[in-house]
Amino acid sequence: MSVKHVLITGCSRGIGLGLVKSFHDKGFKVIATCRNPGQAPALQELIKELNLEPPIALDVSNDEGIQSVFTQVKEKYKSIEVLVNNAGISTSNHPDDPPGQLDRKEMDKVLSVNVSSVGMLTQSFLPIIRGSDGSPGKVIYISSLLGSIQLNTPKETNFYMSTSYRCSKAALNQLVKCFSLVQDQENMVHHLAVHPGHVQTDMGGSRGRKAPLQVEDVTPKIASLVDYLNQETNGQFVDYESKILPY
User: Fold this and answer.
1) For 11-29, what is each residue's pLDDT tens digit?
2) How far apart are CA 76 and CA 176, in angstroms?
3) pTM above 0.90, yes or no
4) Rounded to whole angstroms, how far apart are CA atoms 166 and 156?
5) What CATH code is assigned to 4-239?
6) Strands 56-57 and 82-85
7) Which of 3, 35, 223, 242 is deepest in the core (most CB within 10 A)?
8) Based on C-alpha coordinates, what's the Rg of the chain?
9) Whole-angstrom Cα distance, residue 72 to residue 232?
């Protein structure tokens, strides 16, 4: 059997770090990336423990950096089966970001990293995302239930608005849908937006809110979604257990 490759962004901690282990356990050769590997001790420790290739520095907001990593990956591996767009940010006061208190610079940065950067990265890597057996390649995008417009109701929202983050994830879901509609013989790639659940991470547990899920609860299930993703499920928005969610 040929080795399958997955490139994951934002691996320094949290869900990204968990996905490195989960995809490794699933038999993938993991290409781990983060903005500054030298300042990611948890990732460095995991890389050593699993005997993986050294992590690659990748700032998803830097187009030259994206192109450099693309060239490295193409020259070394020729192609990858799976891309996982995990890197993302929120505002410094997340989740307390209601309308009326928005900050333009922070909102622009969140939209840039969570949407534009994901679009540029995916666009750059599309030519080498393909199955080793000629089957379609796959792209998984870590989204959020907070991006669902239909579910943004007074009862669900409470007083935590997370407006900038919500807008970015709603736009990300639309980006996923747009990419999923481009299917031809030269671009057979399937795309899936995934809500990872409310997980205990730096972002998920902010402002003293206790998240009910641990990273290790969800990342194996997210990794297993590569088996769920096919022509019929292409472009869907699901949770980590493959339950379909409303856009």
Assistant:
1) 999 999 999 999 999 999 9
2) 27
3) yes
4) 13
5) 3.40.50.720
6) unpaired
7) 223
8) 17
9) 32
The counts of H helices and E strands in the chain are 8, 7
Domain residue spans of the chain: 4-239
Q: Give the tokens for residue 20.
A: 């490195």
Distance from C-alpha of 23 to C-alpha of 26, rounded to nearest angstrom: 5
Q: What is the pLDDT of residue 206?
A: 45
Q: According to the model, what pLDDT value does residue 207 have? A: 44
pLDDT for res 228? 97
Residue ranges of the alpha helices (H) in the chain? 14-25, 41-50, 63-77, 104-111, 117-125, 154-157, 163-180, 215-228
The CB density around residue 220, as the number of other CB atoms within 10 Å, is: 17
Neighbouring residues of 161: CB distance < 8 A, sequence distance ≥ 6: 95, 96, 97, 98, 99
At 3 the pLDDT is: 85
Task: Convert the pLDDT of each residue in 30-80 to its tens digit.
Answer: 999 999 999 999 999 999 999 999 999 999 999 999 999 999 999 999 999
Residues of the chain with pLDDT under 70: 1, 155-160, 184-187, 201-210
Centre a 10 Å sphere on the Cβ of residue 186 and count the other Cβ atoms it contains: 8
Q: Where are the alpha helices (DSSP H) in 79-202?
A: 104-111, 117-125, 154-157, 163-180
Cα separation, 191 vs 185, in Å, equals 16
Residue found under tokens 């356990």: 25
> Cα(210)–Cα(208) distance, rounded to whole angstroms?
6
DSSP 127: G
Please answer whether residues 35 and 13 qualify as being in contact, where contact means their C-beta atoms are separated by less than 8 angstroms. Answer: no
